[in-house]
Amino acid sequence: MKKRLVIALIMLVLLSTYTPQKLTLSSIFTIKEIKINNNFILKEEEITNNLTFLYGSNIFFLNSALIENKLKNLYFVKSIEIKKIYPNKLKIKIFEKKPIAILYKKKKKFYLSESFDLIDYTYLENSEYLPVIYGTKDKFKILYKNLKETNFPLELIKKYFLYESNRWDIETNTKRVIKLPSKNYKKSLKNFLDIRGKNNFNEYKVFDYRINNQLILR
Q: What is the pTM for the complete model shown?
């Protein structure tokens, strides 16, 4: 009985190392399906077109770094998360760079992401609702930080314009213009928010804070 068991084990080892058997097992674990999710800006087809090289490759020997490099060539990909679903499927979760504005630089348009990356402009659905920046990325980064710190409602802003004197004009969606001083303008932003709820607010279109400790309304 023991001899038969030993012979059976030897036969199992021999069969499992037989070349045709190896090929059959290998084919089970070749990638046949790739599922993309969490993409809101990029189209699924645009992503999968960059991953066609994966089909037919072995799921065990997946090169995650190669996938990341391929997808990071797509402008809006920030990072990815890869999940293997055995025997032959991949699930790839996309984390995208969120555009917060459209920036004009030397007459060329770029998207500016929330991490302040410049992304080549291409038409995106609803991109017309993004505010426009006429100024530099670095200067805007400082302004944006101050707007966030004063809890300024960014959804109200239609346009940012930087002057050579290093000061900003902000235009709202209701065509009101806030003329900020070049320095210490956080108190000007706070003041605008304070008077925004006053009864006579709608009478004015220009809120000029350029002179220190003064507000000129027009």
A: 0.79
